[in-house]
Amino acid sequence: MWWFVVPKAVFGDDAVQHLQNERAERVLIVTDKSLKELGYVDEVKKHIKAEKIEVFDDVEPEPSIETAVRCAKVARDVDAQLIIALGGGSVMDVGKMARILMELDIDPELVTPFTDLYELGFQKKAKLIAIPTTSGTGADATWAMVLTDTKEKRKVLPANREAIPDLTILDYRFVEKMPPKLVAGTGMDALTHAIEGAVAPWKNDFSDAMCEKAIEIILENLEKSYKGDVEARAKMHHAATMAGMGFGNSQVGVVHSLGHAFGAYFKVHHGICVGVFLPYVLQYYINDEGSKKLLDYLAVKAGLKDAESLVDRIFEIMKNTDLPTKVSEIVGEKEYFDALEEVVNHAINDACIITSPRCPGTEEVRKLYEYAFYGKKVDF
Ligand SMILES: [Fe+2]
Questions:
Q1: What is the Å distance from ligand 1's center to 200 Cα?
Q2: How far is CA 119 from CA 116, 163, 172, in A?
Q3: Rounded distance from Cα 253 to ligand 1 centre (Å)
Q4: What architecture is the 8-174 domain classified under in CATH?
Q5: How much distance in Å is there from the Cα of 318 to the middle of ligand 1?
Q6: In terms of Cα–Cα distance, which of 284, 274, 256, 243 is closest to 371?
Q7: How far is the centre of ligand 1, averaged over its atoms, from the C-alpha of 7 (Å)?
Q8: Which residues are bridge partners to 54 per DSSP?
Q9: Which CATH number fits domain 180-374: 3.40.50.1980, 1.20.1090.10, 3.30.930.10, 1.25.40.10?
Q10: pLDDT tens, 223-281?
């Protein structure tokens, strides 16, 4: 038995106006300080008809478990009927967890795909609406969350189908002012989700439909969006959520394992991390007959010749959006290789490593890191 779980989506110019139709008297907006300063909270508030609107703007990048717990307390105090997560992936993840914790006093790590929240007393009292302000994480459309255990300096990855937002609002005004660097980084994250989701062992007809279309849209629009093309920016906003709907119902793979471990150690933006490893991992897949077939199929679907031309196209996009095409453009050689043992160890223990069409062992992971550093074509 398989599930395909996605939120409803309202999209287009003025999509945020939909909030006028929501019948909630007590609303909590979850966001961060910079988005509040940009005036986005006021923009959202304009469309809410409610007696009480509370704002929790304390979400930090790579949010901690404590932040989610504090946010849940505010939600409980307000007795929120509607939680609006306005922001990027961090905000979404805190919003998702806060909706659960406002009703259940449990350790967030106990929120797993196998936990029956309703048996524990969860009644889903609050509706959760996502309004993404970046076009990449797909967190508005997935049921996983990434939080940080600050005491033990590690990431925790709670996930439960009931965590998924009920609705995502894709209104382009919230991505209009995205800095180009963020457009490029988050766009590569979306592309990685779409490709990894389309080759993961748990892929299915429903996830394929989302991932394949997302790949096509991103290959066509990322560079244009980077240069400020408004229509392309809107298309990218759709594609990021579609990729989320896709990989959220299959999985991501080795690119994310390498990216997670590298990013956590060197504190590099997630999109940059996965982007820089993507073409090298795809080369590694191409050297495996079964995986190459999958990539050939995706490439042809997207109007390209074969898997190799997909890799070439990705390098081209990275150059055209001023992204690093090898890791040596991000960190120094000594610093990198001094840390490599630890980074390899984290990557090999990352859950995404097993949800790949070709699973590397420790030695291959080390070599992938090495090849990606020097920009060498992967020949194993
Ligand atoms: Fe990602």
A1: 14
A2: 5, 15, 39
A3: 10
A4: 3-Layer(aba) Sandwich (3.40)
A5: 16
A6: 284
A7: 18
A8: 28
A9: 1.20.1090.10
A10: 999 999 999 999 999 999 999 999 999 999 999 999 989 998 898 999 999 999 999 99
